[in-house]
Amino acid sequence: MKTSADWISLTGLMGSGKSTVGRILAERLGRPFYDLDMEIERAEGRTISDIFAADGEIAFRDLESVMLDRILSLPAGVLSCGGGTVIVDSNRTLLAAAGKVFWLDLAPELAAERASVGGRPLLDGVDPAVRMANLYDDRRDIYAQADHRVNAAGSPDQVVDEILDYL
Description:
This protein is of the alpha/beta class. It has helices at residues 18-29, 36-44, 48-55, 57-71, 89-98, 108-115, 128-143, 156-166, and strands at residues 7-11, 33-35, 78-80, 99-105, 148-151. Strands 2-3-1-4-5 form a 5-stranded parallel β-sheet. α3 (48-55) packs across α4 and α6 crosses α7.
């Protein structure tokens, strides 16, 4: 794996804006953009929801780790991680070695509102607000290991500006 400090990785709850912010940030920096979930879907030929339904979360996390390693061996760019990517210790180690990690922090109720729009396997059959609050509580300390915490409640451009100011 390439250990250049050029990677910029975005973490946070689903719905925190990682993909939207990542695209804008990559464009403004003139770097490639990678969306970990989209890369998994492309490689597997099925959606994340289908992978969860057919194989379960553990199998998905294994695929996620393999794809993360693959992506980080490419020329450095901006990476939007899945919301749970950082719950795996080895993934956090890879991300930290590759560059700067940003936590797009968003109140769970707002994240639930944003994430309820599309098919999200971790929200299937549950109250999104309750599930998101639980995920936030479970992952907050892990997300906080990022190099920098960004309040993701503002517009995507505001979030990008804060990241650029930090860099």
